[in-house]
Design goal:
Length: 351
């Protein structure tokens, strides 16, 4: 490593001082509203997902991306045969068109339009269509966070030569733990059972807990919920309006980074106003209206996407004749785990 000159050390120190203002300016210039018709036009021309929100295209969000995919039933039913693929990424998938099932770590989940599934970290998964010619879905994934941390791993049954852990046998491939040959509950590389735990020093017990963390984490994620039926959404009144939690650690989902909810505003009404220290992307499921984000007004309708800048005041207004519904993805669990969660409330909803 080259030794820096004194003035270069000073430059590094000043970058830290200036960072907050530069970051604020970047958020102000980043796109907030993504038009649905533009996304639909691109979907017709591409066989790959169309990204609405991603830091690589200048979006505000840094920890997760949001994209839409339109795949033929034939393609989805022939891509993978058994395992599918897995990644060091959490994902929430909302199905908009088609009917089918997803296999996550060997368990099949039937879905239809309006349903959501969550894909826990490093779970093998694949999707198949059983009714309709197309599968249209929207996905929020924490890929950008994994990439920035240098922890991104993607393994696909079609390309075993690129598997990082190079485990053999289908049972071994279902596990999160490198080097583990059995199903969850079996042994890791080091035998952790036996002996008198209380006889160990506090530091050694802490190390023992670290050794067993991956196994316990995998057990918890396999015991967590995966599927949410759109028909079962339970809206409850809040200061921000009517909200239904979809994917959240508080409701039995083993998700450490990302969460999902659906917000609803009746015709002619407005949501509450707040700002928060977490990222948020909102997809308009139904309705039309406008949002005031800081001092800017943004008109939206069904199919549009709003990318809310971190700690920006925002409030939504329904100007249409039907309920406005928002599919909201956020990284609130991640910020809470980091100890950075902060929310400020400005005004209650008017209903």
């Amino acid at each position: 490593m080259a030794i820096l000159k004194p003035e270069e050390h000073e430059k590094l120190a000043l970058e830290l001082v200036k960072f907050a203002n530069e970051e604020l300016e970047r958020r102000r210039k980043a796109p907030v509203l993504i038009r649905g018709e533009e996304i639909e036009a691109q979907l017709k021309e591409s066989k790959f997902p169309v990204h609405m929100v991603d830091p690589r295209i200048g979006s505000n969000q840094k920890s997760f991306r949001f994209w839409k995919c339109r795949a033929s039933a034939h393609r989805r039913n022939t891509e993978w045969k058994s395992l599918g693929h897995r990644h060091t990424v959490e994902a929430v998938i909302y199905f908009e068109e088609g009917e089918g099932y997803s296999v996550i770590d060997g368990v099949s989940y039937q879905w239809k339009p309006g349903d959501c599934i969550c894909v826990p970290m490093f779970a093998w998964h694949r999707h198949a269509v059983t009714r309709g010619d197309w599968m249209v879905h929207l996905a929020a994934t924490t890929g950008p966070l994994s990439m920035y941390l240098g922890l991104a791993v993607y393994e696909d049954e079609r390309y075993p030569e690129h598997w990082i852990f190079a485990q053999k046998g289908e049972e071994a491939l279902k596990t999160l733990i490198p080097g583990k040959s059995g199903v969850p509950g079996g042994s890791t590389r080091v035998a952790l059972g036996g002996g008198d735990r209380e006889a160990l020093s506090p530091t050694d017990r802490l190390y023992l807990d670290m050794l067993g963390f991956a196994a316990e984490e995998e057990k918890e994620r396999r015991a967590g919920k995966v599927l949410v039926r759109g028909d079962d959404l339970a809206f409850e009144p809040t200061r921000m309006g009517n909200v239904a939690l979809v994917v959240d650690p508080a409701t039995g989902f083993h998700m450490r980074t990302i969460g999902t909810l659906v917000a609803e505003i009746p015709p002619g009404k407005r949501s509450g106003a707040h700002r928060h220290m977490y990222e948020e992307t909102e997809y308009i499921i139904s309705g039309q209206g406008y949002s005031v984000i800081e001092d800017q007004r943004h008109e939206w309708k069904k199919g549009d996407t709003l990318c809310i800048p971190v700690f920006a005041w925002h409030q939504h207004f329904n100007t249409g004749s039907e309920n406005a519904r928002f599919l909201v993805h956020h990284n609130r669990p991640y910020m809470k785990n980091l100890g950075f969660l902060m929310v400020e409330h400005g005004e209650d909803a008017d209903f």
